[in-house]
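Propose amino acids for all 53 sites.
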């Protein structure tokens, strides 16, 4: 585990982070995300598929 040189090993400090409230995602938004991911993956596959030869 990495420790800063000025922090003693016996020092235990808990820092609580504020989390953003989850927002509801509409079904249309999920479809858009899936479509964008599929398009991006297809482009990457096509772009890299000819680099093998």
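Proposal:
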């Amino acid at each position: 585990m990495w420790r800063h040189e000025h922090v003693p090993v016996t020092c235990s400090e808990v820092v609580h982070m504020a989390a953003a409230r989850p927002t509801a995602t509409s079904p249309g938004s999920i479809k858009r995300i899936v479509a964008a991911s599929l398009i991006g993956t297809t482009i990457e596959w096509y772009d890299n598929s000819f680099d093998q030869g």
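The two ends are 43 Å apart (CA to CA). Residues 6 and 48 are 47 Å apart (CA to CA).
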